[in-house]
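Supplementary Methods, section 5.1.

A reviewer requested that the exact input to the structure prediction be made available. We therefore reproduce it here, unchanged from the version used in the analyses.
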Amino acid sequence: MTSTQSAALWTQEGETPALEAVGITAEIDDLIARVHASQRYRNPHDRHIEVVYTFPVPTGAVLLDFEVELGERRLVGTVVPKSDAEEGYENAITDGDTAVLLQQTQPGLFTANLGNLAPGESASLQFRYGLLLRWNGDEVQLSLPTTIAPRYGDPASGGLEPHQTPEVTFGQGPSFDFCVNVRGVLREAKWSSASHPLTVESHMVDDDGRRTRITLARPTSMDRDIALCATAPTATGSQVQLAPDGDGWVVHMSYRPDALEQQPEAPPRAIKIVLDCSGSMGGDAIAQVRVAGERILDSLRPGDHFDIVAFGSSHRMLFGRALPATGANVDSGRDFVRSLDADMGGTEIGAALDAAYGIPTDTEVHQPHVLLITDGQAWDSKPVIDAARRSGYCVFTVGVGSTAVEPFVRGLAEATRGACELVVPNDDMAGRIHRHFQRILGGSAKFARVRWPASPSHTSPDPLPPPYSGDTMHIFGWFDDMPDGEIIVELDLADGTRSVERFCIPTPPSGTQSRGPGAAELDPFKGIAHDIPRLGAACRLAEVRDPHQATALATRYRLVSEWTHCVALAIRVEADKATDLPTLVKVPHVMAAGWHGLGTVMEHRAPTSIDPPLAAAERFSDQSVSMRGRSHFRRRATAYSRSLPSGDDHADFVATLRNRALPPILSIDYVRDLGLSDEVVEALERAVDTGGTEHAVVVAFLHLMCRSEPGRTLDRAMRRHLRRAYRSLSLNAGIEAAVGRAFELWRSAEAQIE
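The structure derived from this sequence is encoded token-by-token as follows.
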């Protein structure tokens, strides 16, 4: 490890940062990991602050509980619908109380908001999440991200608000502790890491029996993913568990099929290789791309066809059509791959994949596939995944670098019935590419079905995707009564045969019974069976498309999601309340090791130091401008304004208000000057006629507007000032109704524009 960091992290005001320490402790039981993370904050300022920390979690992480220690107080987070959580949090902030809001910003990203932390005060956030692990052949990988590398594009396009957008620092970051305890089928596995040196202590014994303990061999900075790998060739691949769920039961099956072998005479394939050469790939990642490209070419058979697409802001092709893998064509591919560098600008993955889908292919070649190698460092990935799903291609992905964006590369693969491999620097690239070609050449089962011993009320996944040999599929079934008997899994194979496997549902431990409504109570010390219903519900939630059904399901099982947040409130005595709105303090991330060529974590390299911050900033200034060259708030606001026709009263009003200071006393003339339509102004005047003051009516109107989607483009501080002003009013029902009618006129104008 050769990246040299400075000794301390400082804020712009020269003070120590708000986040002092992070700890991660994981418990692995068979193929379920439960991760306990702690974050310790302190306010070093002489004023109240709001700490905002957007941090990564593994793909598929399911929040199981959340607690806050604030002095002598212990607060337990409550999962509620998104709008209710945000309303409760913002009301607490404007009232001078302390509040914590935990949000899922994107898949794989959480944002913790700690509002009104008093001067000198400390707080500790404790949260626990569950994670379903998977066999990959005879290996199980666990990747725990610790930092977020700069990404290409506009964070607003990925759903982030300005205060949620992560920033980076060249400092050391907070202190960091890490420990994993392993029980069950992986306890006897051989544990290794390509990212960090480990200390592995086997045959340890505690009150829960024998375990293996894994820690980092030396202190480390939070500048890369912690990549753990367990190798266990003789371990049992499939398991079944039964757990109570309220008044019913849940069966969880981790199923690894081993019957799908590569066909000796597999038909020719067309492999369209897409290689990321954007600026963020500089250093370790582009070196991995070159190795991966050559390994792919080594794996081609003479009858296969291929072409290569290299991309950044634009893309270029090797041939422009898929040609046979002859010796001469493969040599041309090698020359192309060896010449690649991270010099093609931004990360326009979508355009490159579209180009790959359109590469002409010989009609005699069957089942064309796309093999994408990237670090995935781009904000707006959903359109790319949606387009890949529509393409009809199987996309196999390899995420490279010390901080590959797993939610994107894995989400892209799973959406297209492909598969994903993550390869950190120093990892076995040849082995990962070999696994992908086993999948591509062997193919998945044509059809998979599960026969349950009784009729389930729900199943997940639904429908069941055909699996690849050696890859784990997690299957859940919900039952009103405790099921008893066998689970039969049937696979229709490509050669026309059928594979049938039978598994017995275990008898639950003595005294186990279903109880209470919904999921089990939050208790990190209960057995793992109490977490299984919520892990299964999270899988079901990913398949729900109706927002109302999704909100109900997430609320019942207390899942932080796109539709629900977790909130904890601490009401202070009057003398301790904050009198001013808090100052925003964003927790920065340590610059990712090897990102954009800043240092390296590869072995056998001469030690180098990271450049001083100013010099380093110059090295990636072109890419940085695209990510953070302007205020994220302005980008979000401008993006919204562009969606509205120019010259429109509504657009003028939003844009002008965004750039105006609020006067102490608001008037109807003020909002008229902002561009509000005559129809809405007249409605506000009628509201004044019902007995309200102009100031109260305008405050109430702007408060309603702030809660709408266009209102979210306003500065967060302005929204809070308006909220505080509104909460200080005492409006009667008649005034509220009249203002509501004015707001609906404004909203109807917006709907006509849309």
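The chain has 18 helices and 34 strands. These observations are discussed further in the main text.
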